[in-house]
Design a protein that fits this description.
63% of the residues lie in helices and 2% in strands. The protein has 372 residues and is mostly helical. The protein has a domain at 1-137. It has a two-stranded antiparallel ribbon with strand order 1-2. The longest helix is centred in the middle third of the chain and has 32 residues, at 200-231. It is globular, with a radius of gyration of 22 Å. This is C6 transcription factor. It comes from Penicillium patulum. GO terms for molecular function: DNA-binding transcription factor activity; transcription cis-regulatory region binding. It is found in: Nucleus.
């Protein structure tokens, strides 16, 4: 590798993966050393960019620092690097001015991280100030996204549904549109270039992962709509109510939106976890992307057997790939399940506790959770 800066960034991420898998102090020390060296090199590059273009290797290094923080299990710092990467891409005028391979790598990393961040964060994450598709034409099949890009974008639309809850017609239309897109999705929905040397077995695994994401998309849609229903007063009237002399739309109740979603939540959870159980999770890196499908399935089931599958599968991902945010997902699920089970017990004795939503736990913890 001709760039010392990029080499340090790659070594930082690699050493951190090793440290997470082995719990070795030496690997962790090396990761911190390479991370610090990368930051120092980026400061030098930034000092020069007042008179020079910010170079491709420095752009790639910023992207890898974002990945480093995700691998570390950070619940804050990854946001800084992702936002910095966006500003730097804008400063370069988008991807068109970059080396093609560098542009494709950064596009994949940014699209993946940005959309995954929107799924699990209600805090504001700026929309891209550039078009991710216009500069490089048909993208290569990406190592981060695989076949899931269209589903990730649908999940971002789902994350935005609470902004429509005051307009029940718009909300209803959006739910129906998202549902239709999930139903009709296939791994060939978006064109892409298959990189040379990609085996049929890899493509099959990427397709299977994407099918899990489609199941997770249905679960996530149910989850967000249930949360909207909890925050809106139940109104069974179809005629609305008069407020200050104007007709106010009735809120969208559970009975209103459930028929809009083709797949019941329990079936989507079952399909997702049934697929995952057949995967050799420790054998192929493509399966490392399954954190979100497992997490959202775990959040939305109270079945003990399902929870065991989720924890067992997340444990395999954590052990085999050394990605710290898997640990964060397990921590959050533990808190959520304990709270949900306590609420079930409270309702059983007539205390009438409201069921907690996983986003409430994220808010309470103050996390900027990302499940990339």
């Amino acid at each position: 590798m001709s760039s010392p800066l990029l080499m340090k960034a790659v070594c930082a991420v690699s050493a951190l993966h090793l440290a997470n898998r082995s719990q070795g102090f030496g690997a962790h020390t090396a990761a911190v050393k390479y991370y610090s060296g990368t930051l120092s090199g980026l400061r030098t590059a930034l000092d020069k960019c007042t008179t020079e273009v910010f170079p491709d290797d420095a752009m790639l290094a910023v992207g890898l620092l974002c990945k480093y923080e995700i691998v570390r299990g950070s619940v804050k710092q990854w946001v800084v690097h992702l936002n910095a990467l966006q500003r730097l891409i804008v400063s370069r005028g988008g991807f068109a001015s970059m080396d093609r391979d560098a542009a494709e790598f950064l596009r994949g990393l940014f699209v993946y991280a940005y959309n995954m961040a929107r799924i699990s964060n209600r805090n504001y994450i700026p929309s891209p100030d550039f078009l991710v598709d216009s500069d490089i034409g048909i993208p290569k099949l990406d190592i981060y996204i695989g076949y899931t890009e269209e589903i990730l974008k649908l999940c971002t639309r789902i994350a935005e549904l609470p902004s429509l809850q005051s307009d029940t017609l718009a909300l209803r239309l959006s739910v129906a549109s998202i549902n239709e897109s999930l139903v009709t999705w296939s791994h060939t929905s978006a064109p892409c270039i298959i990189p040379q040397g990609t085996s049929p077995a890899i493509l099959t695994r990427l397709q299977l992962v994407a099918e899990c994401f489609r199941d997770a998309g249905f679960v996530y849609l149910h989850s967000i709509m249930e949360r909207i229903s909890r925050t809106c007063p139940d109104n069974s009237s179809d005629t609305g109510s008069i407020v200050s002399g104007q007709l106010k739309d009735p809120s969208l109740s559970l009975q209103d939106w459930i028929p809009l979603i083709s797949m019941p939540k329990s079936l989507a959870v079952y399909r997702c976890l049934s697929r995952v159980e057949t995967f050799p999770l420790g054998d192929h890196c493509e399966y490392s992307a399954l954190t979100f499908p497992l997490f959202i399935s775990g959040c939305e089931t109270d079945n003990v057997a399902d929870r065991e599958i989720v924890l067992r599968s997340l444990g395999k991902l954590q052990d085999n790939f050394g990605i710290g945010n898997v640990r964060r997902a397990k921590e959050l699920l533990g808190i959520l399940w304990a709270r949900q089970d306590a609420n079930v017990d409270a309702r059983f004795i007539g205390m009438g506790q409201k069921n907690v939503h996983w986003l409430d736990i994220v808010d309470e913890l103050g996390w900027e959770l990302i499940l990339a």
